[in-house]
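Predict structure. Chain length: 182.
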Amino acid sequence: MSAICGAMSTALSRMVANLAAGKQGYEAAQAELAAIEARGKALQQRFLELAKEDEKAYDAVVAAMRLPKANDVERATRKDAMQAAYKRATEVPMEIIRASLDALEIARLAAERGSRSAITDVGVGTLLAQAAMRGGALNVRINLAAIADAAWRAAVDEELEKILANGATLAHAVDDLVNERL
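Prediction complete.
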């Protein structure tokens, strides 16, 4: 669901930019509006791809958990498969979180240059990008708990905290822009 929230966020930013495209009063922003559309379209597609990847990653965890464990060899094989699956199930939501930071940046641009009459849609898009980030973070954290590699866990957790902090700062800035343009 997190990736779908990201896709919806990006769709709203694109809409706000497109509502200003070719319109009087926005002549100076046309190149930036076109860039928001191009960047947003690619990001929206990436979020949809990530939704599918997230589903596959979850399916791999379930498949690994169902592996036989009747003897030491089977248990070792199952353990290795589960560790690999949990790592992938952590990597995909991390990609969603990184993409959500991009969605917030696109929302910022749409808030600055897009149609003022639809500025509240940027606000909703910002909330959706935050939901994508926070939902992804929940998935990362629950999967990290199952990973044995302490150094890998620590590195992912450190990156996660940095991205979440940057995202919170950017979301606050976008909220301020939205409120200024109301």
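Summary: Helices lie at 2-20, 30-65, 72-113, 119-144, 150-181.
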